[in-house]
Write a structure and sequence with these properties.
14 helices, 7 strands, 42% helix, single chain, alpha/beta, 7-stranded mixed β-sheet, Nuclear Transport Factor 2, Chain: A
């Protein structure tokens, strides 16, 4: 069962849109499986049996809450001068997950990179538009590549019903015209890592000109749980020199979220003198022909409103003055549920 934990967690994450909830759902799945181990008739059916339990756990959670989204799904872009707005509840947002929670330790880099495309925030947000059972079918059939018969067994239904649900799910996503849910051409792993290093160095020095040079013309910059989002390098620069200037002087640690480069930033606390969690930033990039890759998304998840965020990424609860301004963490880190 433990061997299947990353795959289960990835499935639960795509279903629920939250790293926290995916961890809880996976843990609940394994606990239920352990208690019911004597009901597993054939050891060879372990995977299907576990996913059936996970499906029921996820369906129960989906029934109890509303759809998660991204800032771009809820409003038109603002400007650097726009009010940031009051924070919405954490349950309103598609949240990141530590890459280590969903990556198969034995997987090869190429397959892991391909799998991470279905972990993109836009794709996970698109899944939230589907009715729960259609979401199950789409994820199992098109992401995890299960057969229609295997999915029918999980849902205790017919193959015809599974095929019909898959057609309806595809049609729904097409009607929504979620163009940005389609995976762009990603840079190579080496180019992506180099881009993160450049961004981290520029951010640590708060060199806005260098940051802007790394951004694509239509970059999206958002800050869940605040509803404001902005588009374009000029607006990003104006925001970072205006309301966002509070990030100046942060200490940062490189990590990985949803299979993409990310970093955690810490700000000094005037009372304790310690550096406390401020934001987990996920960077999305796209290959740009012969040119260097450019950042297409800067997604900042604000830790003060999400108290479990840094813990779920196995990040330090605080830093000291002796820690360097730019640090590194294990790429793909994250605690087990």
């Amino acid at each position: 069962m433990e061997r299947l934990r990353p795959s289960l967690t990835g499935y639960c994450y795509r279903m629920l849109g939250s790293g926290f909830e995916a961890e809880d759902a996976t843990q609940e799945t394994l606990l239920r499986a352990w208690r019911r181990a004597d009901t597993l008739a054939e050891p060879a059916a372990l995977k299907s049996w576990l996913f059936s339990i996970a499906t029921n756990v996820c369906l129960d959670q989906i029934d109890a809450r509303k759809r998660r989204a991204r800032p771009v799904d809820l409003a038109d872009p603002g400007t650097a001068a726009s009010p940031v707005g009051a924070p919405l509840p954490e349950t309103s947002w598609v949240l990141p997950i530590a890459s280590g929670q969903v990556a198969d330790p034995g997987g090869d880099p190429e397959s892991l990179a391909a799998e991470s495309e279905s972990l993109r925030l836009a794709f996970v947000a698109a899944l939230q538009h589907l009715p729960a059972r259609q979401r199950v079918v789409l994820v199992l059939r098109e992401v995890l590549r299960w057969s229609a018969k295997e999915v029918a067994d999980v849902l205790d239904t017919s193959v015809a019903s599974v095929n019909s649900a898959l057609q309806r799910a595809r049609a729904t996503l097409e009607e929504l015209d979620l163009d940005d849910a389609e995976a762009p051409a990603r840079p190579s792993t080496e180019a992506e890592s180099h881009l993160l290093e450049q961004y981290l160095e520029a951010f640590a020095e708060y060199d806005i000109d260098r940051i802007v040079a790394l951004l694509r013309y239509d970059v999206v910059f958002d800050m869940p749980p605040l509803p404001l989002w902005i588009r374009g390098p000029e607006e990003v620069a104006a925001f970072m020199l205006g309301p966002g200037a509070a990030c100046r002087g942060s200490k940062v640690i490189a990590t990985s979220a949803n299979g993409f480069p990310a970093f955690a930033s810490y700000k000094p606390d005037p009372e304790s003198g310690a550096w406390l969690p401020w934001s987990l930033t996920l960077l999305e990039a796209e290959a740009d022909g012969a040119s260097s890759p450019r950042v297409t998304g800067v997604h900042n998840f604000l830790a003060p409103f999400m108290p479990n965020l840094f813990e779920s990424f196995a990040l330090p609860a605080q830093l000291g003055d002796e820690d360097p301004a730019v640090g590194t963490a294990l790429r793909g880190s994250g605690r087990s549920a």
